[in-house]
Write a structure and sequence with these properties.
Blueprint (H helix, E strand, L loop, with lengths): L2 E21 L2 E17 L2 E10 L2 H4 L7 H22 L7 H12 L8 H6 L11 H23 L14 H4 L7 H8 L7 E3 L1 E4 L5 H12 L3 E5 L5 H17 L6 E5 L7 H14 L1 H6 E5 L14 H4 L4 E3 L6 H10 L3 E4 L5 H13 L3 E4 L6 H13 L10 H4 L12 H4 L5 E3 L13
Parallel strand pairs: 5-6, 6-7, 7-8, 8-9, 9-10, 10-11
Antiparallel strand pairs: 1-2, 2-3, 4-12
């Protein structure tokens, strides 16, 4: 199917956090939700689609010379610019929605390295405007990419994950597969029957009191999977915290806790990551066994700061996260010994789906992480995980940090957005598009 973009708009919502989300660059206490609306025409039929994402400036663009309000204002203006220029930034010609999304990604983020002057101009940024990182630009385009897919699915009356049966030429994606059809590679990866249940993952902050903060989620919601935020600067201290959390979880009644560890790029080197893992193994073999993988330990620019991850990967899987913003990083990940990708829908549906297929083709691991996805964005991530095989299901922690952002979908999607028995559940028929009308 070939889709043509008609018009687009975006609206913003302020979302306060009920508790701070502590990452290595600081504490997130409030955030902006960008909600995009895009109209498309497909085979003579028109439909509007919706997509949403948090503009997590402290995560995607932790520029210390700018305040949160300043970064947020720049990101909002970038979203408004994308809405004004969306048809042109998607190539100005009708195409498969994945091709449109990849064109948008390349216009805003590029194929690899810093954006060219023309790419910055395409983003609508004045020369005096502070320039967001590639990760932040990908984040801003992501609700529009999702809305395009949602609209195409709505126009055709099918899920956006069912658009790959026909191997339509998609040059921006096809070239990543050695001339093979990207549609065929993606179709071969997707589950024929979607997964309906996913473990719910709870974020455990480095300073969280385990009894008062973590235990209630176990007692009331049955959580048994936990993402540990570690500081990265002291391998021994991080290992002690990991063991402390694991033992507390066992004491709270979680028989077999699932753990992952994330320093948000604050670990100084692969050697420090190995040291952390060895300390965990020496202190508690069961805690080490429960640790399934670690997310990008070092800085996110894997071009300027390359490392060899083979020693780490031989101990535990190590997944590329913030550093994965373009296909150049995909190729480098193999050279540098990464185990796989920690994908996020906030980098764009088209890029995430293409990267997942690329990784699966090479036998690499794929996890689906979160950006505290609320409402529409959570539904999008859940549908992505329903069809794309991942090792962790999907992280969805808006219930933990911004529960009010989900109220529009409650109680009808309570089984999904408010997990019980430690599980998110997709009930009923899979919606058209990406769930924009669910």
């Amino acid at each position: 199917m070939i889709a043509r973009i008609g018009e687009a708009r975006v609206e913003f919502f302020h979302r306060p956090f009920v508790q701070p989300l502590i990452i290595s660059s600081g504490a997130i206490t409030e955030i902006t939700e960008a909600r995009a609306h895009v109209r498309v025409e497909v085979d003579g039929r028109e439909a509007w689609g919706r997509g949403a994402m948090y503009l997590s400036d402290l995560w995607a663009w932790p520029e210390p010379s700018l305040s949160h309000d300043q970064r947020d204002a720049v990101l909002r203006r970038l979203c408004l610019s994308i809405a004004r220029n969306l048809p042109d930034q998607c190539g100005g010609e009708a195409a498969h929605p994945l091709e449109l999304g990849m064109r948008l990604h390349h216009a805003l983020v590029g194929h690899g390295g810093p954006p060219s002057g023309s790419e910055r101009a395409d983003a609508g940024s004045a020369s005096a405007e502070p320039q967001p990182t590639a990760l932040a630009r990908a984040m801003c385009l992501s609700p529009f990419d999702a809305a395009i897919h949602d609209a195409v699915g709505a126009a055709l009356g099918v899920s956006a994950m069912a658009l790959y049966d026909d191997p339509v030429p998609m040059p921006e994606a096809d070239r990543l597969f050695g001339g093979e059809s990207a549609a065929r590679v993606i179709a071969a990866m997707l589950r024929s029957q979607p997964a309906r249940a996913f473990d719910a993952w709870l974020v455990v902050g480095e300073a969280d009191d385990l009894g008062s903060v973590v235990r209630p989620w176990i007692d009331e919601r049955g959580y048994r999977a936990f993402k540990l935020k570690i500081l990265g600067r002291d391998p021994k201290a991080d290992a002690e915290r990991t063991v402390e959390v694991f033992r507390a979880l066992r004491a709270f009644g979680v028989a077999r806790p699932r753990l992952t560890a994330d320093s948000n790029g604050a670990t100084p080197s692969p050697d420090a990551a190995v040291e952390y893992l060895e300390h965990v193994r020496d202190r508690d073999a069961d805690a080490f066994d429960a640790l399934e993988y670690i997310e990008q330990p070092t800085g996110r620019d894997i071009v300027a700061q390359p490392h060899d991850w083979r020693a780490v990967a031989a101990t535990k899987p190590v997944l590329l996260d913030e550093g994965l913003t373009d296909e150049a990083a995909m190729a480098l990940s193999v050279e540098q010994g990464w185990s796989g990708f920690a994908l996020k829908t906030c980098k764009g549906h088209s890029f995430a789906l293409t990267a997942a297929a690329w990784a699966h083709r090479r036998g690499m691991l794929v996890a689906l992480q979160d950006l505290t996805n609320p409402g529409l964005a959570a539904i999008h991530a859940g549908l992505f995980a329903a069809f794309v095989p991942t090792i962790n299901g999907v992280e969805l922690n808006s219930a933990q940090f911004t529960p009010a952002a989900n109220e529009e979908w409650l109680p009808r999607l309570a089984a999904f957005l408010e997990p019980r028995d430690g599980t998110h559940r997709l009930a009923g028929a899979i919606p058209d598009g990406l769930g924009g009308r669910w």
